[in-house]
Design goal:
Blueprint (H helix, E strand, L loop, with lengths): L6 H7 L7 E5 L2 H16 L10 E5 L12 E7 L8 H11 E10 L7 H21 L2 H5 L14 E3 L12 H4 E3 L1
Parallel strand pairs: 1-2, 3-4
Antiparallel strand pairs: 5-6
């Protein structure tokens, strides 16, 4: 979920134990970029066995069009913060995971206090938008860089999903302050 330009999906597809990769993102522009990367990766593969193809699908976490328990693994890299409804998105990810499946979530946490935190906040609020705007992020991807204008609550660690992977806890309960 939130595949963006496909980096995680393509890395997973290159793993020998992976048989099928479905990469979902709401942005058609991000998916177009992912397809270009996938095509380039397919032409530069030097392995004797090509990685499985990646299916790129436009969609949201809150409305995944897959059967209950269809996937052994689901990943979200820097995307939970962009879900329109975190609880619904996490519940959908849990629903499509088979019992005992794995949900991997990669996110960043807001900068801490002190001089280092102030420098990081200045970097994110001033430099990133300037550079992103200069590179035409919004025109290219149809939205602003995902971190801009978002707020969170400190360093976090994910709690395990409930047994069987069928229900996600409320979004306020899945994250624990470290």
């Amino acid at each position: 979920m939130a595949t963006g330009t496909g980096d995680v999906a393509l890395a997973l597809a290159a793993h020998p134990a992976v048989g099928r990769v479905v990469a979902v993102d709401p942005s058609p522009l991000m998916l177009a970029g992912a397809r270009v990367k996938a095509a380039a990766a397919a032409t530069t593969t030097v392995d004797t066995v090509a990685p499985p193809p990646v299916s790129f699908v436009q969609g949201t976490a809150e409305g995944l069009p897959y059967a209950d328990g269809e996937f052994a693994v689901a990943t979200v890299a820097f995307g939970v913060r962009n879900f329109g409804d975190r609880s619904a998105g996490l519940a959908q990810l849990a629903r499509v995971l088979r019992p005992g499946g794995t949900l991997g979530v990669l996110e960043v946490s807001p900068p801490g206090p002190g001089l280092g935190g102030a420098a990081a906040r200045a970097f994110v609020s001033l430099l990133v938008p300037a550079v992103g705007g200069g590179w035409g992020w919004r025109a290219r991807w149809g939205r602003q860089p995902p971190m801009i204008g978002r707020r969170g609550g400190g360093a976090t660690a994910a709690a395990p999903l409930p047994r069987g992977g069928r229900q996600a806890p409320p979004s306020t309960g899945i994250w624990q302050r470290v």
